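TICKET: design request
STATUS: open
ATTACHED STRUCTURE:
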């Protein structure tokens, strides 16, 4: 038996998650999970630290996020490849820019436009059981399920999240029924907020902070128990024994998500260089022009040698667009009278001096470019 946790918040979900990304990764690896999805609230911020630790452990990370479209239940999105990650990032940026700080305003139309390559799990509110006891009916409507299926087609799933509640068996049956009627597969998930049960107190604390109250006054606003942690495989087998295929479904999703964070590279604007000229040639032209202005009587041989050395390393590391970006920012600022000065280890770059980014004369100061950028 194996398992991949698909719904997990870190402390980058402000005032919701109660564990650091590296703690969650280490615990998931220790428990023998196949993979761990980092799905912070409308954010991929926690993924970077999680991936760094996961790489050291050779442990797979699934990149995702939790969002909630207007008028719909929460959805957990997972990126299958590099292109899908780009669409997820743009979707989150769109939602963040629409609302006040801390919110993410999305419509179903936005999800439909970004859905290609994304897998999605719908979090079904537990109120479906309460309805049978006279409470409010929170079951997803036929229309909501239809919108969800239209958006994600065979990439749509329902999340079965059981936490040793008073009627887990009944809730599992209810979700299985919704799954059969909607033809949307049902998979297990943990709605994880911390890596071990002992962190429940920390979670209660940050919840109270978020609500401006005390832990004692949280009452129904706190989790009923400490089951929002990463649970052992034997525990998961017991909890989901009445929901056939729910655990195995997590592995299917993990196998469909091949994207790794180290596939990303800096992608600078193409307009940094004039049409018909590659960025490296443009950087060299600007630098030699600047060198002639710095030394109108002729560029000293040691400076020429230093520039050649720097260009060799810049070319090898493909940093030319970075230098052009900083040069463009400095030029923009100085054209508008904005105080601007390169500082720190950048002063060890003759290229930066020739571009006007720094003002430390390399003829008067012994500079070491590797203090600024090194192959290592």
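STATUS: resolved
RESOLUTION: sequence designed for all positions
ATTACHED SEQUENCE:
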């Amino acid at each position: 038996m194996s398992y991949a946790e698909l719904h997990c918040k870190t402390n980058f979900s402000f005032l919701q998650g109660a564990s650091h990304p590296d703690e969650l990764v280490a615990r998931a690896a220790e428990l023998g999970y196949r993979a761990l999805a980092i799905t912070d609230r409308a954010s991929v911020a926690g993924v970077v630290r999680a991936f760094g630790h996961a790489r050291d452990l050779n442990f797979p990370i699934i990149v995702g996020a939790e969002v909630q479209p207007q008028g719909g239940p929460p959805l957990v999105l997972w990126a299958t490849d590099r292109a899908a990650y780009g669409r997820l990032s743009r979707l989150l940026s769109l939602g963040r820019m629409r609302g006040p700080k801390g919110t993410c305003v999305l419509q179903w139309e936005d999800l439909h436009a970004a859905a290609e390559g994304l897998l999605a799990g719908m979090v079904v509110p537990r109120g479906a059981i309460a309805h049978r006891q006279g409470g409010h009916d929170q079951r997803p409507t036929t229309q909501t399920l239809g919108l969800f299926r239209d958006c994600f087609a065979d990439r749509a799933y329902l999340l079965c999240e059981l936490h040793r509640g008073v009627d887990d068996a009944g809730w599992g049956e209810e979700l299985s029924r919704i799954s059969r009627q909607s033809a949307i597969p049902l998979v297990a998930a943990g709605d994880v907020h911390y890596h071990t049960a002992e962190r429940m107190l920390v979670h209660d604390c940050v919840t109270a902070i978020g609500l401006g109250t005390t832990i004692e006054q949280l009452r129904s606003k706190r989790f009923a128990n400490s089951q929002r942690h990463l649970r052992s495989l034997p525990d998961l087998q017991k909890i989901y024994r009445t929901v056939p295929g729910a655990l195995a479904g997590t592995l299917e999703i993990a196998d469909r998500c091949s994207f790794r964070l180290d596939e990303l590279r800096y992608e600078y604007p193409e307009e940094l260089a004039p049409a018909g000229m590659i960025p490296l040639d443009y950087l060299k032209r600007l630098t030699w022009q600047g060198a002639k202005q710095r030394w109108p009587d002729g560029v000293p041989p040691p400076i020429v040698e230093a520039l050649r050395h720097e260009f060799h390393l810049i070319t090898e590391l493909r940093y030319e667009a970075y230098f052009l970006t900083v040069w463009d920012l400095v030029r923009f600022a100085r054209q508008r009278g904005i105080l601007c000065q390169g500082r720190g280890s950048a002063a060890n770059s003759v290229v930066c001096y020739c571009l006007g980014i720094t003002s430390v004369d390399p003829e008067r100061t012994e500079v070491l470019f590797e203090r600024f950028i090194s192959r290592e």
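CLOSING REMARK: The chain has a mean pLDDT of 92. Residues 200 and 226 are 6 Å apart (CA to CA).
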